[in-house]
Each structure stands twice: as C-alpha cells, then as structure tokens.
Specification:
Blueprint: H1 2-9, H2 11-27, H3 33-57, H4 59-65, H5 78-97, H6 101-120, H7 128-147, H8 155-175, H9 177-182, H10 188-192, H11 194-212, H12 214-217, H13 223-246, H14 250-273
Helix pairs in contact: 2-3, 2-14, 3-5, 3-6, 5-6, 6-7, 7-8, 8-11, 8-14, 11-13, 13-14
Length: about 270
C-alpha cells in the first residue's frame, strides 16, 4: 500500500515542486528557513492532494490511458485516495494560514478551488481545462513570492510555468485521446482532431519560444539567463517543434510532455543564475 500511495502522489513532481520553491527563495534572496520550509510543505501537500484527487476522478480513463497507476491497478482503494485528498488539502490550507494573510487567501480562495474544479469539471472542457491547470502551476510561483514578501519577484517563472504547462497539457490531451474519448470528455483534440491540435501546439511552441527570450531583450536578466535559456529551453523547443510537424504520434506526444516538464525547471534555473 505504501508504494501505491507514493505513486498516487507522484513523488518526482513533488520533489520538483519543492526544489522550485527553494530556488525561488534564492532568487528573491529570502533567508528565513522556517518560512521556506513551510512554503515548501504547503506546495507539496496541495500538489499531492491534487494528484490524488485527479487520479480518483480519472479512475475510468486511467484504465485505458494509464493502467499501471495505483488506483486502476488496485494498489490502493478509491476510498483511501479520497481520504488522503481531504487530509492533504486541509493540512496545506492550515499551514498557509501561518505564513501571511495574502498567502492564505491565494491558497484557500483561489488555488485549492481551482484544483478541485479542474478535476470535477474543467478537465473535460476544450482548452479551458488546459488553461486552468496552467494557472495553478503559475500561481505556485505567485504564492511563493507572496510568502517571501515579494509578490511580483517571481512573475517571470510564473509566466514560463504557465506557458509550458499549457503546451504540455495540450500535448498530453493528444496522447490521451483514446481514453478521454471513451470517458466522454470533450478535450480539444477530441473536438478538433489530432491534426488541428498538433497545429495549435506548433503555434504555442513558437510563441512560447519567442516569449521566453523577452526578459533578456528587456534587460531583466543577463547573459547567463540567455545561455541557459538557449540550451535548456530553445533547443528542446526546436526538437519539440520538429516532432509536432513530422510525427505527432501518441508515443511522441508522451515524450514531448516529459521534455516540457524539464523546460519549466530550466527556465527557473535561468532566472536564478541570470
């Protein structure tokens, strides 16, 4: 059961989230260890809760798209998953209340409602669901900035996270086409088809690639930012673009989703060292 529980929470994603918050604190030169740890725990608990709830709601589609996930494989029960979801959400919200008022408001009135609404309703809405989950990822950096007393200090990482997550979610929808269709979802690839979805992904890739360079040309960051951006984001995006143009198959789309996840971290590193 313990292994199934860890898989339910997606520990790699949680680790990346924790590292992102620590790097964010370094970017803002914030040096209060207890506040940093508390912020990390809020992000980890809320992310774990959202992952568990998403798997709970995706039980039927995961039988097709991801049969090795712990719920369809019966490593843990649906009842246990929903109990874990509630406990983690409550813990995350409670911890945020000890940071400051604005952090608590972001978590309790914006982030958590969006997380729940995404899995309940928005996930099956064409593009709307993609935008909502992208907002949630971007809000994590805004929340960190608020917790570290610099609300706008992480706006660049927040925008990068939003853009890359939006592209990644669209690509994941292409990869999950079969299972989503069987579950009666109305994602963009189901309504518009794989070809038009791949075309939209190509457009998003070009826009995000160009937009990621803007902070350098606006003199917000220096040469280190540009170098890391080129090797950590621009080159991978060129590869993504080639795949989307030549062969946007389900297998390739799953590969692209992993590449885009790494790009978010590369963008954060570029801001930190830039």
């Amino acid at each position: 059961m313990l292994l199934g529980l860890l898989q339910l929470f997606r520990p790699l994603n949680l680790l990346l989230g924790a590292i992102s918050i620590v790097i964010s604190a370094s970017i803002l030169e914030f040096e209060n260890p207890s506040i940093i740890l508390q912020t990390v725990l809020v992000v980890v608990f809320l992310s774990a809760a959202a992952n568990a709830f998403n798997d709970y709601m995706d039980f039927e589609t995961d039988k097709i798209n991801r049969p090795n996930r712990p719920l369809p494989k019966e490593k843990i029960s649906k009842k246990f998953a929903i109990i874990a979801t509630i406990l983690l959400f409550v813990t995350g919200i409670t911890l945020s209340a000890f940071l400051n008022r604005d952090a608590f408001i972001i978590v309790s009135l914006i982030t958590v409602p969006l997380m729940i609404a995404y899995s309940l309703w928005f996930k099956g809405w064409p593009l709307i669901g993609n935008i909502v989950v992208s907002l949630i990822l971007g809000l994590a950096f805004i929340f960190a900035g608020v917790a570290f007393n610099n609300p706008w200090g992480l706006i660049v990482p927040a925008l990068l996270a939003f853009g890359f997550t939006l592209l990644r979610e669209l690509v994941k929808d292409i990869a999950d086409l079969e299972g989503d269709r069987s579950a009666g979802l109305r994602t963009f690839p189901i309504l518009a088809g794989e070809e038009k979805s791949a075309t939209l992904a190509v457009i998003l890739t070009i826009v995000i690639g160009a937009g990621a360079l803007a902070p350098y040309f606006l003199s917000l960051y220096g040469l280190n930012f540009l170098i890391i951006l080129i090797f950590g984001i621009e080159f991978p995006l060129v590869y993504v673009l080639l795949i989307l143009v030549k062969s946007p198959t389900i297998t390739n789309c799953k590969r692209i989703a992993q590449i885009l996840k790494a790009c978010v971290f590369a963008g954060l590193l570029a801001v930190y060292l830039g």
